[in-house]
Amino acid sequence: MSARSALREALSVVSPVECAGCGSPDVELCPDCRRRLDPTVRSRELLTGLVVVSGLDYEFEVRRAVIAFKQQGRLRLARRLAPALAAALDRACPPGPSPPLLVAVPASRSGLRRRGYDPVGLLAREAGLVLAPRLLVSVAGAGGPQKRLDRVQRQRARQGTLRATTDLTGRRVLLVDDVVTTGSTLLEAERALAARGAAVVAAACLASTPETGRSIRGA
Questions:
Q1: Domain 39-215 fold
Q2: Mean pLDDT by 10 residues, the chain (219 residues)
Q3: What is the pTM of this model?
Q4: What does each C-alpha distance from 80 to 30, 50, 54, 56, 83 come to in angstroms?
Q5: For the chain, what are the domain ranges?
Protein backbone atom coordinates (compact mmCIF):
# COMPACT_ATOMS: atom_id res chain seq x y z
CA MET A 1 0.00 0.00 0.00
CA SER A 2 1.38 3.43 -0.95
CA ALA A 3 1.78 6.19 1.64
CA ARG A 4 -0.99 8.17 -0.06
CA SER A 5 -3.39 5.21 0.04
CA ALA A 6 -2.55 4.56 3.68
CA LEU A 7 -3.19 8.21 4.57
CA ARG A 8 -6.52 8.22 2.72
CA GLU A 9 -7.59 5.02 4.51
CA ALA A 10 -6.63 6.50 7.88
CA LEU A 11 -8.54 9.69 7.16
CA SER A 12 -11.62 7.74 6.06
CA VAL A 13 -11.84 6.20 9.53
CA VAL A 14 -11.77 9.62 11.16
CA SER A 15 -13.94 11.36 8.56
CA PRO A 16 -15.73 8.81 6.32
CA VAL A 17 -16.48 10.03 2.80
CA GLU A 18 -18.01 8.59 -0.32
CA CYS A 19 -18.13 9.74 -3.92
CA ALA A 20 -20.78 12.44 -4.27
CA GLY A 21 -21.84 11.04 -7.62
CA CYS A 22 -21.90 7.25 -7.33
CA GLY A 23 -21.28 6.50 -3.65
CA SER A 24 -17.91 4.76 -4.08
CA PRO A 25 -16.17 4.69 -0.69
CA ASP A 26 -13.25 6.79 0.55
CA VAL A 27 -13.17 9.34 -2.26
CA GLU A 28 -14.91 12.70 -2.58
CA LEU A 29 -15.41 12.28 -6.33
CA CYS A 30 -14.22 9.23 -8.24
CA PRO A 31 -12.49 9.53 -11.65
CA ASP A 32 -15.60 8.42 -13.56
CA CYS A 33 -17.80 10.99 -11.83
CA ARG A 34 -15.19 13.73 -12.34
CA ARG A 35 -15.42 13.01 -16.06
CA ARG A 36 -19.22 13.18 -15.89
CA LEU A 37 -18.89 16.72 -14.56
CA ASP A 38 -17.04 17.83 -17.69
CA PRO A 39 -19.28 20.48 -19.34
CA THR A 40 -22.00 19.32 -21.74
CA VAL A 41 -23.37 22.66 -22.88
CA ARG A 42 -26.99 22.80 -24.07
CA SER A 43 -29.31 25.66 -24.99
CA ARG A 44 -33.05 25.80 -24.40
CA GLU A 45 -35.69 28.47 -24.91
CA LEU A 46 -38.41 29.44 -22.44
CA LEU A 47 -41.91 30.70 -23.32
CA THR A 48 -40.80 34.34 -23.45
CA GLY A 49 -37.97 33.55 -25.82
CA LEU A 50 -35.35 33.72 -23.06
CA VAL A 51 -32.45 31.43 -23.97
CA VAL A 52 -31.16 29.28 -21.09
CA VAL A 53 -27.70 27.76 -21.49
CA SER A 54 -26.69 24.97 -19.11
CA GLY A 55 -23.32 23.37 -18.52
CA LEU A 56 -24.59 19.95 -17.40
CA ASP A 57 -27.62 17.69 -17.70
CA TYR A 58 -29.26 17.41 -14.30
CA GLU A 59 -29.56 13.63 -14.03
CA PHE A 60 -27.91 10.51 -12.57
CA GLU A 61 -24.46 11.10 -11.03
CA VAL A 62 -24.50 14.81 -11.91
CA ARG A 63 -27.76 15.29 -10.04
CA ARG A 64 -26.43 13.47 -6.97
CA ALA A 65 -23.23 15.54 -6.99
CA VAL A 66 -25.19 18.80 -7.23
CA ILE A 67 -27.50 17.72 -4.39
CA ALA A 68 -24.45 16.86 -2.27
CA PHE A 69 -23.12 20.36 -2.92
CA LYS A 70 -26.39 22.21 -2.34
CA GLN A 71 -28.05 20.18 0.39
CA GLN A 72 -25.35 18.20 2.18
CA GLY A 73 -22.79 20.94 2.74
CA ARG A 74 -20.07 19.42 0.57
CA LEU A 75 -18.74 22.82 -0.45
CA ARG A 76 -15.49 21.58 -1.93
CA LEU A 77 -17.50 20.23 -4.86
CA ALA A 78 -17.91 23.83 -6.05
CA ARG A 79 -14.40 23.62 -7.51
CA ARG A 80 -15.43 20.64 -9.66
CA LEU A 81 -18.80 22.10 -10.67
CA ALA A 82 -17.69 25.65 -11.47
CA PRO A 83 -16.17 24.87 -14.93
CA ALA A 84 -19.61 23.79 -16.17
CA LEU A 85 -21.13 27.11 -15.11
CA ALA A 86 -18.25 29.00 -16.75
CA ALA A 87 -18.77 27.04 -19.98
CA ALA A 88 -22.48 27.88 -19.98
CA LEU A 89 -21.69 31.55 -19.49
CA ASP A 90 -19.19 31.54 -22.36
CA ARG A 91 -21.91 30.20 -24.67
CA ALA A 92 -24.66 32.46 -23.31
CA CYS A 93 -22.77 35.76 -23.31
CA PRO A 94 -23.87 37.71 -26.41
CA PRO A 95 -21.53 39.86 -28.51
CA GLY A 96 -21.63 43.58 -27.91
CA PRO A 97 -19.58 46.66 -27.10
CA SER A 98 -19.69 45.87 -23.38
CA PRO A 99 -20.45 42.70 -21.42
CA PRO A 100 -23.83 42.43 -19.73
CA LEU A 101 -24.28 42.65 -15.99
CA LEU A 102 -24.20 39.22 -14.38
CA VAL A 103 -27.15 38.97 -11.99
CA ALA A 104 -27.62 35.92 -9.81
CA VAL A 105 -31.06 34.51 -9.12
CA PRO A 106 -31.23 34.95 -5.33
CA ALA A 107 -31.62 32.01 -3.02
CA SER A 108 -34.77 31.99 -0.94
CA ARG A 109 -34.45 33.29 2.60
CA SER A 110 -35.38 29.91 4.01
CA GLY A 111 -32.75 28.25 1.81
CA LEU A 112 -30.06 30.65 3.00
CA ARG A 113 -30.98 30.03 6.63
CA ARG A 114 -30.98 26.28 6.13
CA ARG A 115 -27.67 26.06 4.25
CA GLY A 116 -25.78 29.00 5.67
CA TYR A 117 -24.32 29.83 2.24
CA ASP A 118 -25.41 30.84 -1.25
CA PRO A 119 -24.69 28.05 -3.81
CA VAL A 120 -24.82 30.36 -6.85
CA GLY A 121 -22.48 32.88 -5.27
CA LEU A 122 -19.99 30.18 -4.30
CA LEU A 123 -20.05 28.63 -7.78
CA ALA A 124 -19.61 32.05 -9.38
CA ARG A 125 -16.54 32.80 -7.24
CA GLU A 126 -14.99 29.45 -8.10
CA ALA A 127 -15.66 30.15 -11.79
CA GLY A 128 -14.06 33.60 -11.57
CA LEU A 129 -17.33 35.42 -12.31
CA VAL A 130 -18.10 38.86 -10.91
CA LEU A 131 -21.78 39.16 -10.01
CA ALA A 132 -23.57 42.48 -9.67
CA PRO A 133 -24.39 42.76 -5.95
CA ARG A 134 -28.02 42.50 -4.82
CA LEU A 135 -29.69 43.76 -7.99
CA LEU A 136 -32.33 41.10 -7.57
CA VAL A 137 -33.80 40.12 -4.20
CA SER A 138 -36.53 37.88 -2.84
CA VAL A 139 -39.71 39.52 -1.59
CA ALA A 140 -40.32 38.84 2.08
CA GLY A 141 -43.01 36.24 2.72
CA ALA A 142 -43.31 35.25 -0.93
CA GLY A 143 -42.94 31.83 -2.47
CA GLY A 144 -42.94 28.43 -0.80
CA PRO A 145 -42.27 24.76 -1.57
CA GLN A 146 -42.74 23.98 -5.26
CA LYS A 147 -41.58 20.39 -5.68
CA ARG A 148 -45.13 19.03 -6.03
CA LEU A 149 -46.37 21.77 -8.39
CA ASP A 150 -46.60 21.37 -12.15
CA ARG A 151 -45.15 23.89 -14.62
CA VAL A 152 -48.18 26.21 -14.69
CA GLN A 153 -48.61 26.09 -10.91
CA ARG A 154 -44.94 26.91 -10.40
CA GLN A 155 -45.15 29.91 -12.71
CA ARG A 156 -48.18 31.23 -10.84
CA ALA A 157 -46.55 30.59 -7.46
CA ARG A 158 -43.40 32.47 -8.48
CA GLN A 159 -45.16 35.62 -9.72
CA GLY A 160 -44.22 38.62 -7.60
CA THR A 161 -41.59 36.77 -5.55
CA LEU A 162 -38.60 38.75 -6.87
CA ARG A 163 -37.87 42.43 -7.35
CA ALA A 164 -35.06 44.49 -8.81
CA THR A 165 -33.52 46.94 -6.36
CA THR A 166 -32.55 49.77 -8.71
CA ASP A 167 -33.36 51.39 -12.04
CA LEU A 168 -31.75 49.39 -14.86
CA THR A 169 -33.01 51.32 -17.86
CA GLY A 170 -30.82 50.59 -20.86
CA ARG A 171 -28.71 47.93 -19.11
CA ARG A 172 -28.21 44.45 -20.51
CA VAL A 173 -28.42 41.64 -17.97
CA LEU A 174 -27.43 37.99 -18.07
CA LEU A 175 -29.03 35.83 -15.38
CA VAL A 176 -26.96 33.25 -13.47
CA ASP A 177 -28.49 30.29 -11.62
CA ASP A 178 -27.55 26.82 -10.42
CA VAL A 179 -30.28 24.30 -11.36
CA VAL A 180 -33.17 25.05 -13.72
CA THR A 181 -36.18 22.75 -14.08
CA THR A 182 -39.35 24.34 -15.46
CA GLY A 183 -37.74 27.78 -15.78
CA SER A 184 -40.43 29.47 -13.67
CA THR A 185 -37.89 31.18 -11.42
CA LEU A 186 -35.94 32.52 -14.39
CA LEU A 187 -39.16 33.86 -15.93
CA GLU A 188 -39.94 35.65 -12.67
CA ALA A 189 -36.41 37.07 -12.57
CA GLU A 190 -36.77 38.24 -16.17
CA ARG A 191 -40.09 39.92 -15.32
CA ALA A 192 -38.70 41.67 -12.24
CA LEU A 193 -35.66 43.02 -14.09
CA ALA A 194 -37.63 44.09 -17.16
CA ALA A 195 -40.00 46.00 -14.86
CA ARG A 196 -37.03 48.20 -13.92
CA GLY A 197 -35.93 48.72 -17.52
CA ALA A 198 -33.36 45.94 -18.00
CA ALA A 199 -32.96 43.89 -21.16
CA VAL A 200 -32.39 40.28 -20.09
CA VAL A 201 -30.28 38.82 -22.91
CA ALA A 202 -29.94 35.20 -21.72
CA ALA A 203 -29.47 32.96 -18.68
CA ALA A 204 -26.53 30.72 -17.81
CA CYS A 205 -26.96 27.89 -15.32
CA LEU A 206 -24.94 25.04 -13.91
CA ALA A 207 -27.42 22.33 -14.89
CA SER A 208 -30.87 21.91 -16.40
CA THR A 209 -33.47 19.19 -16.87
CA PRO A 210 -35.34 18.21 -20.05
CA GLU A 211 -38.32 20.13 -18.58
CA THR A 212 -36.45 23.40 -19.16
CA GLY A 213 -38.18 24.82 -22.20
CA ARG A 214 -37.67 23.93 -25.84
CA SER A 215 -34.34 22.48 -26.89
CA ILE A 216 -32.50 24.62 -29.45
CA ARG A 217 -30.93 22.29 -31.97
CA GLY A 218 -27.35 22.98 -32.93
CA ALA A 219 -26.94 25.51 -30.12
A1: Rossmann fold (3.40.50)
A2: 46 64 95 98 96 98 96 94 98 89 89 84 96 90 53 62 96 97 95 97 97 82
A3: 0.85
A4: 12, 27, 15, 12, 7
A5: 39-215
